[in-house]
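Job type: complex structure
Entries:
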Amino acid sequence: MPQEIKKLIDGNNEWVESVKKTDPHFFDDLEKGQTPDFLWIGCSDSRVPATQLTNTMPGSIFVHRNIANLVVHTDINLLSVVYYAVKALKVKHIIVCGHYGCGGVQAAMGNDSFDIIDNWVRNIKDVYNTHKAELGAISSESDRFNRLVELNVEEQVNNLSKISFIQEEWKGGNKLQIHGWVYKLNDGKIKDLNVSVDNPENLDAVYKFN
Ligand code: CO
């Protein structure tokens, strides 16, 4: 077995022992099922693991991750995760968590091609284009990069609000909240962008379903 793989298996064994020491029934309880309150839509970046940075245990957060935490309305993978989280698990909160220094967002700001990834990153270029007046007025490239990370999260919160079955939940009285956060790699802290929504009121009329 390669050393780096053995390290993972050894790490797993150590983790199991430490969890059992704190809570001997932890695994028996979790085996019965999951009732997470949160769906996390985050970046695939290895530095932004949902449960670790929120100091929560397995069973707390249902997770979907992709490059640059995007909510793309034709992505059947994302839609299936959101549908299951909302309709079956009945999560109370959906959190879109981006992070400063996101490679996907950086790629979208530039003109280099990354082959098939260009088609994914294109979604972030569209976010840039939507907000080009604001972004174009920022002279510092790093400030512009940081702002695009934030705007990208905001747009993904909007994209979730545009999903018909989410609007259906809201209409049915579900108080489901969608939040936008950005994680800071340099100090490990989460910044709440204060863009939380629990209704479709702020959406343009064309996106609202009867
Ligand atoms: Co990223």
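Summary: The first strand starts at residue 38 and ends at 43. The chain has a mean pLDDT of 98.
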